[in-house]
Design a protein that fits this description.
The chain is α/β, with parallel strands linked by helices. The chain has helices at about 25-40, 55-70, 85-95, 110-120; strands at about 1-10, 50-55, 75-80, 105-110, 130-135, 150-155, 160. The chain is globular and about 45 Å long.
Length: about 160
């Protein structure tokens, strides 16, 4: 069994002169990412890889999570193509993961992330900013991840944590 933690970036500033990709976290987004990091500290397994979009707000969210986890060196892969990536793109990266890892964290953007969770669990999900879905995958190898093999184990939002 594999476990996937899907995190949408924290709330970002409204605009940036260089465009959407460069938008940084707003103060609320920073607080929410710190809270999510504290809340998820027990779930993070040392050495678990993190795949993150290269956009400023996602790399900032990832850094705040890592700091809260007190995980030291975490294997973070920054994906240039992760910016606004589709669920199919994320699934392709998941399928290519090393099977030694039992869990992986993804930090990115909607609609791709919510659609990824929906595809894997066949349940409607919409991740708000700094929302996190925990998905349990009934597989032994990452390349076996496809539609319907996941079960939504929990949903964290900045306002509440919900368990199905």
């Amino acid at each position: 069994m594999k476990r996937l933690f899907v995190v949408r970036h924290g709330k970002a500033e409204a605009k940036h002169p260089d465009g959407d990709f460069h938008r940084a976290l707003a103060p609320r987004g920073q607080r929410d990412a710190e809270s999510l990091g504290q809340w998820s500290r027990g779930a993070h397994v040392l050495g678990s890889p993190v795949l993150t979009s290269a956009a400023v707000r996602t790399t900032q969210t990832t850094a705040l999570l890592q700091e809260a986890w007190q995980a030291g060196e975490t294997a973070i892969t920054v994906l240039e193509e992760g910016y606004l990536a589709s669920d199919r793109a994320w699934l392709g990266w998941i399928n290519a993961l090393d099977n030694r890892h039992e869990q992986v964290w993804i930090v990115g953007h909607n609609p791709g992330l919510s659609e990824l969770v929906e595809r894997l669990t066949e349940q409607p999900v919409w991740l708000p900013t700094c929302g996190m879905a925990e998905v349990e995958l009934q597989i032994d190898q990452w390349d076996a991840a496809f539609a319907g093999v996941g079960r939504l184990r929990g949903l964290f939002t900045p306002k509440s944590s919900l368990c199905p």
